[in-house]
Amino acid sequence: MKLDLSIREKLVVFYVVLGFTAVSVLGIYSFLSAKDAILDRTFQQLTSVREVKKARLTQFFNDRFKEIELLSTSENIKKIIEHKQLLDTNIYNFLSQGNYYSTFQILSVNKEVIFFHSFNQKQDSCLNTKEYTDKIKKDRIV
Fold this sequence. Notes:
The chain has helices at residues 7-72, 75-83, 89-97, 130-138; strands spanning 103-107, 113-118, 123-126. By secondary structure, it is mainly alpha-helical.
């Protein structure tokens, strides 16, 4: 079954096939380029989010270390250690304001608890009990 087509019909078919092929190749190339660009942009966004979160987390821990250093030189903390006083309201407000701490403990050099405060229970305890120290060591807090 041989088709007898005029030259005009052959040219029309040829140009339609050529146009369809060109559009198909261009579409595939555009799709792949767009896909790569979107993946690169998404990767860059995730990388920048990771860097921002890393910086925020590092700053958070640096702030907590600075707070601990500040508290360790506080006169009120020294009074708690020496005289077994309760937590001063200024320090209590400072520690409870950010909701970063659930407990506040002062330990001796040999890791015995001198002072304990739970911010959930809102009560201070000036202790030096072996029982509580052993419980904390058992729970691996110390």
